[in-house]
Amino acid sequence: MGPSGVLFLVGALTLVAVVYNHHTKQSRHVGADNEKSLDLLDQYVLHVDRGKGDLKSVGRVRRHVDQPELMHSVYLDKEQRIKMSWTPVGDEIEFYVEAATRGYVGIGFSPGAGMIDADMVVGWVDDNTGKAHLVDCHGSDKNAAPLIDVDQNYRLQYGLQNDTHTTLRFRRVLDTCDSKDMTLGSDTVRVIWALHSSDPVDPGNLEGLAYHGREARGVRSLHLISPPRPVRPRNPHVKHWDVALHNFVVPDNMDTVYWCKIFKVPPLSDKHHMIGYEPVLQEGHERYVHHMLLYECAIPPHKTAQFDRYVAQEGESCYAPNMPQDWDQCLTPVVAWAVGSQGEFLPEHVGLPLGEWPRTTYFMLEIHYDNPTFQSVKDNSGLRVHYTKNLRKYDGGILVSGITVTPLHIIPPQQPEYKTAGYCSSQCTSRTLPPDGIKLVSVLLHSHLAGKKLRLRHIRNGQELQRVAEDNHYDFNYQQTRVLGNEVSVLPGDELVTECVYQTPNRTEPTFGGYSTKQEMCLAFILYYPRAPLAACYSMTPVKYFFQTFGVKEFYDLDMDTVERMFLKLDQPDNILGRLSSTTTTTMRVPSFADIGPDRAMDEEVNRRAIQELKKMKPFTESGGGGGGGGGLFGDLVISEPREFRNKSFTSHLIELPWAEQLLTQRIEETLYGGQHMVFCRLPDDQLAIPAEVFNFPNFTELLPPVENFTNCQTTKTRESFSSGCSVCRAQHLFLLVLAVLVADLRH
Q: Are 519 and 588 within 8 A, CB to CB?
């Protein structure tokens, strides 16, 4: 090696030392106040260091800038022992946890509401040193102690404790590109939690992490990525009106009851605006009340005296023969509440009209009670409606979209996934929407126990636009209205598709559309403005097309035209949530969500008992397709053609189909989803805006799935391979470069 080579080597090694010291100093002393001054690679290296560095060295990080304001905050348990607050920050999310313990706190995101395969983080503050610790963990394939992740993707901001509580503040990337972490997005997330009074012995391997026990754990479903929800205005002009039942006795001889009652608004001298609502659930009765809807009654002036008499009555079984026909005018929902929801307040520029005599003067409350253990319950639940005389800029309305509640909505058994859809045609929106269209504000997606993925799709001129709402981890026990981050414009001629994906791997018989939670629904309740003359737009499979799909040509004693009229009479929906007479007193087993899981939702012994009791009651009539398993009209229809199915009831025919054959179920799904749809376009007065018409499902260009996550993860992996997860990454690479140059120099 010549003198020039020696000089080059000395200079290069000096440069390596400088770079090493520079990055070491940065890793020890860089703070939030000067982090922004680093170049992009430095910031990334710092990010990796914080996520993967020595856990034992992580303590309280002093912040010289304000922490981001926390957008959401909830207690995760009824006893209010653990409170979680959070806010999205760009492509990250920041959490702040307050827990009534001086030991460890566990927070996790679970695919199935338990520790199996869950993404978890365990944190505590050492009682002796005051140092805070945070460990990124994951669950195994069984309920056992959490395992430490190789990649530590949660970054501790700080941790504190006093005599009674521990607080932890930490961050993570929404999509860490780590298979052990759950990607956090707009889907429903099942947040699991656990507490214990002691700290782990060794933070490096969680040695001594004591079992939290059954009483110090829980789960709560949440929407983590959502805009701030409008809150109740604190204004003296805002009043409330309680629309609630009074000492209603829930029957102890049926498991599912729909009860309806007429209410009249408080005396109002002129038009007001409804600006929000909250559930009023009698303490201890939360598990009985599944959903509540408040319908506006569009009645002519000469009917007001009759409706005043209805107000004085205690109510009737919804949609039963005893329910007055006048109540059919109560069609347009203005409030849709379901289990798990905390209610909703409207944005400041939208209000729902109240007190427009006679249109928005009378309302019908519908409550769906679940009573799986046949208890005698006296209930006073209902809704608290908030309203003001200070009118807002726009009158709002509620639009219902989806699949008609009908037994022709069928979900096969033994399916890992099966997709159905309701269609709202361009002809309907062209006829009913104003020239400038409407703005969608929020959406409540609704199905029952088998529903797993729900979405509201938006089509314009043959091209799918951004989905209005989507949930790929739907939780039946958490049906909170989704406030849209950006209002969505729907124009005349646009089309809407409400899509539901079901999972029935443990069911042995088909599931039919209906009102019991053992049956299924697929609906979207949409808040929009300005108010238009459109109450509902939904579809069902045409009757003849349905039977043709299952290979049936004729029934004994009834021609297909008669069969079609029978089903349309029952299922042509005068009200989106009820017209099948059998659904007044449905006969299907409903799980007790607080105590047992959906696996017991098909308990046939309880079903049998319910059916026996119901048949003793006058209002009971069998119709439609029965509940989760056949019966009703399907059971009464006996096949005459084709010959191979002759003398079987249609119910038996369905049960005997080889549902495990994937080609069969795929063909049925494609035919019923992508084939013919009979569309109902309904006005607030229960009339059809256009005659019910059969359409082929639209042919449109689907929205491509986002590629950002894949690209970001690939980029992250590339940068990780460069950084090697350490702060001396550039020095290492430079050193290798120096060696390569020296070798080349020596060879010459």
A: yes
> Does residue 640 register a pLDDT over 90?
yes
Cα–Cα distance measured from residue 640 to residue 170, given in angstroms and rounded to the nearest whole number: 67
* Predicted confidence (pLDDT) per residue in 409-426, tens digit: 999 999 999 999 999 999
Whether residue 592 has pLDDT greater than 70 = no
Read off the CATH number of the domain in which 106 is found. Answer: 2.60.40.1210
Is residue 465 a contact partner of residue 459, using CB atoms and an 8 Å limit?
A: yes
Is 93 found in the same domain as 9? Answer: no
Euclidean distance between CA atoms 504 and 38, whole angstroms:
52
CB 419 within 8 A of CB 300: no
pLDDT digits (tens, 9 = 90+) for 684-733: 877 899 999 999 999 999 998 766 555 567 655 444 444 434 444 444 44
287-345 pLDDT, tens digit per residue, is 899 889 999 998 888 899 999 999 999 999 987 888 998 998 888 888 888 887 888 89
The CA distance from 398 to 130, in Å, is 54
Within 404-480, strands assigned E span 410-411, 418-424, 438-446, 451-460, 463-464, 469-471
φ, ψ at 512 (rounded to 5°)? -110, 160
Domain finish residue from 181, 198, 223:
223
Q: Where are the alpha helices (DSSP H) in 597-675?
A: 604-615, 632-636, 650-656, 662-674
Q: How many helices (H) and strands (E) does the chain have?
A: 12, 40
CB 260 within 8 A of CB 575: no
Rounding to the nearest 10 degrees, give the CA dihedral for residues 182, 183, 186, 188: -10
In a domain, 701, yes or no: no
Could you give the number of structural domains in the chain? 3
Same domain, 501 and 613: yes
Annotate 499-548 with DSSP letters as a single string: EEEE--TT--S-EEBSSSTTSB--EEEEEEES--S--EEEEE--HHHHHH
Annotated active-site residue 258? The verdict is yes
Q: Which residues, other chains included, contact 364 with Cβ-Cβ below 8 Å and sequence gap of 6+?
A: 260, 261, 262, 263, 294, 295, 297, 327, 330
Judge if 489 and 590 occupy the same domain. yes
Catalytic member of 446, 458, 653, 677: 446
Across-strand partners of 536? 400, 682
Asked if residues 146 and 206 have their Cβ atoms less than 8 Å apart, the reply is yes
In a domain, 485, yes or no: yes
Residue 300 lies in a domain: yes
- The pLDDT score that the predictor gives to residue 143 is 77
Q: Quote the CA–CA distance of 621 and 197 in Å, as a whole number.
A: 57
Report yes or no on 334 lying in a domain: yes
State residue 38's pLDDT score.
40
For residue 497, the enclosing domain spans: 238-696
Task: Name the burial class of residue 58, with classes exposed (0-12), middle (13-18) and buried (19+) by CB atoms within 10 angstroms of its CB.
Answer: buried
Is 212 labeled as catalytic in the residue annotation? no
Which residue is catalytic, options 154, 258, 295, 515?
A: 258
**What is the H or E stretch that residue 108 is in?**
strand 105-110
Q: What angle do CA 586, 592, 595 make, to 5 degrees?
A: 170
Stretch among 27-41, 113-127, 490-504, 535-549 having the lowest mean pLDDT? 27-41
Same domain, 394 and 507: yes
Kindly state whether residues 218 and 365 are assigned to the same domain.
no
Amino acid at 90: G
Cα 568 to Cα 545: distance, rounded to the nearest angstrom: 13
Q: What is the pLDDT of residue 4?
A: 52
Longest pairwise C-alpha distance within the chain: 111
Q: Nearest Cα to 685, choosing from 432, 327, 364, 331?
A: 331
In terms of domains, do 158 and 268 share one?
A: no
Assess whether 46 and 80 both reside in one domain. no
* Same-domain pairing of 47 and 84: no
Q: What is the distance between the alpha carbons of residues 677 and 708, in angstroms, rounded to a whole number? A: 35
Q: Are 19 and 26 in contact (CB under 8 A)?
A: no
pLDDT reported for residue 385: 95
